[in-house]
Design brief:
single chain; alpha+beta; 8-stranded antiparallel beta sheet; 3-stranded antiparallel beta sheet; 7 helices; 11 strands; 41% helix; 24% strand
Length: 254
């Protein structure tokens, strides 16, 4: 039975590049012998077992330095090292789950955008209980927006096209972000009127540049109503002739 293999054979058997095998050799992770006749590196059966261990540990994302320690460590050291690796992987999985949730939420925002495009004007109740002032120096407000940009909102009074910045409620626990002594920008309890839902496009560079007047014209000419306050909740930012913020807006009908 053959008990010596060339680096090319080993590379093919294990699917490991020859350069990687040479690196493992230089790092002392595998132990090779030289052919007495041609002085080429030769891989023994024992070396192949070493390679299997290295591939296994590398699959666990274990760095070379830790693999070297494991190779000369006690069984207890190996148990401890694997336990630490499991915890590290659990932390990474938890972070990936959070990241996936954010991706899913962004996809939901895009679906909202499609709905606003295909059904541009619908009578809908604003999907927040209240809007509080956004404080740019407050880390908790920024954290809320980083967790979900739908928190970030614009508020337009009936007689102004210059927005105020607000933070909308998404979950019940978001109420902890509010200073109870500070007046709200808007509350669902403050108005019993109907609201028209539509897509609001706002310049990324200048939030005073937007197409709210177009929607106001529609309300006046097509619905024979007067526009009241506007609440706009951020969906996403994208480029369309220029960089724009896209908002789901609710315009009060008076």
């Amino acid at each position: 039975m053959k008990d010596r293999f060339s680096i090319q054979e080993i590379s093919k058997i294990f699917g490991v590049p020859k350069s990687t095998l040479r690196y493992w050799d230089q790092e002392g992770l595998i132990h090779l012998e030289r052919n007495e006749e041609n002085h080429y590196r030769e891989f023994s059966i024992m070396t192949m077992y070493e390679i299997i261990d290295i591939i296994t540990y590398r699959a666990l994302r274990m760095p070379i330095e830790d693999i070297r320690k494991v190779e000369t460590g006690t069984p207890e050291f190996l148990r401890h090292t694997l336990a630490e690796k499991e915890k590290e992987l659990d932390d990474q999985i938890a972070q990936l789950i959070k990241t996936k949730e954010k991706v899913k939420r962004k996809q939901e925002h895009f679906e909202e955008y499609i709905s606003l495009l295909t059904q541009p004007y619908q009578i809908k109740t604003p999907d927040t209980a209240w809007l509080m002032p956004f404080h740019f120096q407050d880390k908790s407000h920024w954290d809320a927006c980083m967790s979900d940009s739908y928190h970030f909102s614009l508020y337009f009074s009936p007689c102004s096209y210059s927005p105020l910045y607000g933070l909308a409620v998404i979950r019940e626990e978001d109420q902890n972000l509010r200073n109870p002594e500070e007046p709200l920008l808007w509350s669902s309890a403050s108005s019993k009127n109907e609201y028209l839902r539509c897509l609001l496009k706002v310049s990324y560079d200048d939030h005073s540049v937007h197409d709210l007047s177009k929607h106001h014209d529609y309300i006046r000419t097509q619905l024979n109503k007067t526009p009241g306050v506007t609440i706009a909740r951020h969906l996403f930012t994208a480029y369309e002739t220029k960089r724009c913020d896209y908002y789901k807006a609710f315009i009060e009908l008076l």
